[in-house]
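hi! just following up on the protien thing from before. the input was this:
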Amino acid sequence: MYRLICRDGNAKRGEFTTVHGTIQTPVFMNVGTAAAIKGAVSTMDLQGIKTQVELSNTYHLHVRPGDQVIKKLGGLHKFMVWDKPILTDSGGFQVFSLAGLRKIKEEGVYFNSHVDGRKIFMGPEESMQIQSNLASTIAMAFDECPPHPATREYMQNSVDRTTRWLKRCKDEMARLNSLEDTINRKQMLFGINQGGTFEDIRIEHAKRIAEMDLDGYALGGLAVGESHEEMYRIIEETVPYLPLEKPTYLMGVGTPENILESVERGVDFFDCVYPARNGRHGNAYTNHGKMNLLNAKYELDSRAIEEGCDCPTCRHYSRAYIRHLLKAKEMLGLRLLVTHNLYFYNNMMEEIRGAIEQQRYNEYKKAKLKGFAEGEA
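and the predicted 3d structure came back as:
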C-alpha cells in the first residue's frame, strides 16, 4: 500500500508498505542481478549503507541456479539472507537484449539461453511463475522491450501486446497468490508503460494500464539511446496519466543527475547498475562529480574519497590506499568503491526525501547539480 505523505511541485514523498517492510520514497534500489551485488558486497554490507530495496533479475535466476532451486531453498530472501523488500525484474529486458535469436509470438517469446544455448520459452504466465518461485516482494509484469528507434506501427503493435500480456500477468499472479504452497502470497505486481518516444502512445498506454488497479506502475523503454532531454519530456508527459496514489518507477535510470530531474517530474522508484559498475572501474561518485581513483594525483592523497561522507569506506580508508588496491588488482579496492557509491546513492535519496518534506526540493536540486558540475575534488 502506498501513502503519499506530501508533494513539492510534482516531486512526491511517500511510504510504500509491503510484507517485507515499509519503503520510504523516493528510493534507489540496489541492483543484485544474480542475487548478488557485483563487487563482492554482501547483504550484511547493504544493511549498513542505508539500502532499502534490493533488485534481482528473473531471467538470470531462472537460467542459473533455477527458480525451482531457489523455491526449494525457501525463496530469494532466505537464499541471499536479506529481510527487506526485493523487486524482481520480469526478465523481459534481458530476453530482448541478451537472447540473440528469438521469436516473439502472442503466447510469449522463444529464445536461447545466453549461458548454455538451451531453448527457453517465456511468456506472461511463465514470468509470474518464476517470480512467484523466487518469492520477491514486488514482481514486474512481462512486457516487450521494443528496439530504439522503432517505427510508429511497430511500437503501437508492441504496446498493444504488452497490454494484453499485462492482463495475463495480473490473472496469473492472482492465481499463484491463492495457492497453499506459494511462499509469498502477498506478492505485488507493477505494470510497465511502454511507447518509446511517441508521447501519444505512451499517454494512451498509461491510461489503459492505470485502469487495471495494480500495486505500482513503471516507465520502461527509456535510457535506451534517446537523449536525456527526450527522456525527461516523456516522463513529464506520461507521469500525470499514471495514478498519483501509486508508486511510479523509472526502470534502469540512472545517473545522479537523471534521478534529480526525474524526482522533480514525479518518479518514486529508481534502479541502475551505474554505482556498482563505475565502482568496479575505479570511479567514485561524490558531491563534486565523479572521480577516477586510478589517477596519479591520488598516489599520496591521504584524504577519504569524500570528506564528511559517513560510509564504511570513507570512515576508514584513504584515496591513496584505494588507488594502490586498484593498481594491484586487489578485489578489496572494487569492494570499497562499490560500497561508497551505493551509500552515496542511498544517502542522496535520503536527502531528497528530506528536501521534499521541507518544501525546498528545487533549491536542493540546483545546489546538488551545481556541485556535480564543479568536477573532481
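The first strand starts at residue 2 and ends at 8.
Residues 101 and 279 are 32 Å apart (CA to CA).
cheers
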